[in-house]
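[audit] Reproducing an earlier prediction to check determinism. Same input, same settings, fresh worker. If the tokens differ from the archived copy the diff job will pick it up downstream; this log only records the rerun itself.
[audit] input (253 residues):
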Amino acid sequence: MNALPAEQRAETSMTGVDSPSPVVRVSVSNLTKRFDRRNVLRSINLELYSGERVVLLGSNGAGKTTLLRILATLSRPTSGVVRINGLALQQSPQEVRRHVGVVAHQPYLYDDLTAGENLHFFARMYDVPDELHRTAEVLELVGLGARTKDRVRTFSRGMQQRLAIARAILHRPQLLLLDEPDTGLDREGMHVLERILEHHVASGGTALMTTHDLRFGLTSGDRVLLLEFGRLTLDAPARELVEEELDARLSRR
């Protein structure tokens, strides 16, 4: 399911060609983040809609991970307003977390537990109904059904990344935040990631993803955001962007 850019969404709404209208999943207004005296994010204004895959690009230090950590309630903004599914992040962080699934640089898995035990632990944290069935389901989705009883410490980096993706989708979140989810994945793992993203947005979910693989970002995303020195300088449909031109901008320091 391909999301429409804002101007096409408005046009569609007026003509009645496509309904229902996308839901505003994330709303960010005048978001800033400072560490000591250094501005990491500067006056970010942004809306993300249901049914779209958004790729967040930027050079190292541009603020990508900081923005994802704020949306995931792992870091507090210095100023500004963030709403996820209409909930104010600063006022309702616990409730917001139930709507969000996160894949970060660290897999946040327990090495001495099996794959199944890891997911059962997180299923109880999120009060996932029918946790045995759901755990088995997501392990199959990421291609680890046969490794349910294997301890995570025996997994390759790519297998751990697949399990981290399984953990992120376990509680059926409406917003997926994926910080370089392609890290360590082989070709089969990339196919798994692409299938999960397609299914997530087709069911009305939203995905915001960072990646250093520009080609993957442009082919897997509906919309591209570019952060430069903490400012959002580009918000455009992926199909309108030229890889070489975008690569040149990313190479600037």
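[audit] rerun output stored. Observation attached for the diff report: The beta strands are 24-35, 38-49, 53-57, 79-84, 87-88, 100-103, 175-179, 206-210, 223-228, 231-237.
[audit] end
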